Amino acid sequence: xxxxxxxxxxxxxxxxxxxxxxxxxxxxxxxxxxxxxxxxxxxxxxxxxxxxxxxxxxxxxxxxxxxxxxxxxxxxxxxxxxxxxxxxxxxxxxxxxxxxxxxxxxxxxxxxxxxxxxxxxxxxxxxxxxxxxxxxxxxxxxxxxxxxxxxxxxxxxxxxxxxxxxxxxxxxxxxxxxxxxxxxxxxxxxxxxxxxxxxxxxxxxxxxxxxxxxxxxxxxxxxxxxxxxxxxxxxxxxxxxxxxxxxxxxxxxxxxxxxxxxxxxxxxxxxxxxxxxxxxxxxxxxxxxxxxxxxxxxxxxxxxxxxxxxxxxxxxxxxxxxxxxxxxxxxxxxxxxxxxxxxxxxxxxxxxxxxxxxxxxxxxxxxxxxxxxxxxxxxxxxxxxxxxxxxxxxxxxxxxxxxxxxxxxxxxxxxxxxxxxxxxxxxxxxxxxxxxxxxxxxxxxxxxxxxxxxxxxxxxxxxxxxxxxxxxxxxxxxxxx
Length: 481
Ligand SMILES: *[C@@H]1O[C@H](CO)[C@@H](O)[C@H](O)[C@H]1NC(C)=O
Ligand SMILES: *[C@@H]1O[C@H](CO)[C@@H](O)[C@H](O)[C@H]1NC(C)=O
Ligand SMILES: *[C@@H]1O[C@H](CO)[C@@H](O)[C@H](O)[C@H]1NC(C)=O
Ligand SMILES: [Zn+2]
What we know:
With about 475 residues, the chain is an alpha+beta fold. The protein folds into three domains: about 1-75; about 80-170, no CATH class; about 180-475, Aminopeptidase (3-Layer(aba) Sandwich). Helix content is about 30%, strand content about 20%. The protein is built from twelve helices and 18 strands. The strands form five sheets. Strands 9-10-13-11-14-17 form a six-stranded mixed sheet, sandwiched between helices. A four-stranded antiparallel sheet has the order 2-3-1-4, with no helix packed on it. Strands 6-7-5-8 form a four-stranded antiparallel sheet, covered by helices on one side. About 50% of the residues are buried. It binds 2-acetamido-2-deoxy-beta-D-glucopyranose (3 copies) and zinc ion. Zinc ion binds next to loops. It is an enzyme of class 3 (hydrolase). Its cofactor is Zn(2+). Its EC number is 3.4.-.-. This is Peptide hydrolase.
């Protein structure tokens, strides 16, 4: 790690640190004015060179990806920083898929300068243009964008890259409080096989999962849904349908808009049977994206699979007349593909309201199984609360022993938004390794295809559901005939 030359001594430093659980910085109130949040696997700090935060970071986490002199945004009002980061995908996917970074940059340039000529390198732009490249490495790119002149969020990012705006102002550090961690540990310590839990979670219906996914992807020819992209008409059809189906199960649901132009979040609640503020939350994202330049975005795996898992859990709650001791929320977020926008809005709202969230588990991509591989459950290697991840691993061993459990570097679904707000959170994913689905971020992401495994989808759904039953506590309502 090299500090930049002293000639730049007066310019603050922009630091990109590989993602660490924010607890690493638990005592870092000293950096609270210097933290600019996280995108993907990267944390951003903007530090005064003479200030105490730089010293603190150097002593606690010298593993910075990079350090750059960069003037604060005040100097360039109306601009924002935009981060692109390569996703963790299996070699089979990175070798077969075309890297669309070049096309993407050309398209951005097109918005900026329609006359890009043949052979011209994209983004040779300088100060004063709508898009300026500040850093360019093999796996990451930092742009400065003029949001008035570039509708950057409307251009789909390259298929195997994550992209999002970096906050314009410092973001508070909100580590998960130790009391909340203790509560999760307490739940974990009490988890043991419960035949009633097994009977309830085994009742998730595979034929129902099939029907539900075929509606959401448009494969059944009934819904008319072509796309569940956050800006599409299809996502609004999906939102109304999901809300109605979840309400059929006895939940109280709300469509909550979070940003104009985006489909809404769907927030469904089952009220506690006891007097408590405690809430356990399960979620998935129901928006999707397709191939570059295509309007079809069926998203059967990403994240139709997580969405129908949540719906399948809701349907089973109703069928088996489950009543929870604590409050339970089942949430379906939108805007995930544009940088966790729906879940960030909702997690922020819960934090501001002082919500008492015991834990949350996000389901993102549950159904794809590569040829020759056993059914699996992937848990996040870095982002999330290790205690919740451990709980989910143990629950899996008890109720879905058919799954091989391991870690995945597939990064950053909506659980990151909750973890950032200091809520205990984790994710369930389809593979103990990087993303291998050949239809990832592709218009061919349908449920009727090789490798789309409803058995694995149900097995992971059982894990999410059993975690909920153990964490929330429940009983079965008696027939009142
Ligand atoms: C979780 O599972 C592991 C592996 O089976 C086991 O060693 C550990 O004791 C379990 N944790 C608890 C709290 O039951
Ligand atoms: C779920 O339970 C219902 C009755 O409680 C039963 O009719 C149905 O066959 C069960 N389904 C599965 C998949 O176990
Ligand atoms: C959350 O609920 C538990 C159980 O009712 C309670 O002990 C705890 O104080 C609550 N925490 C907050 C932050 O409200
Ligand atoms: Zn996803």
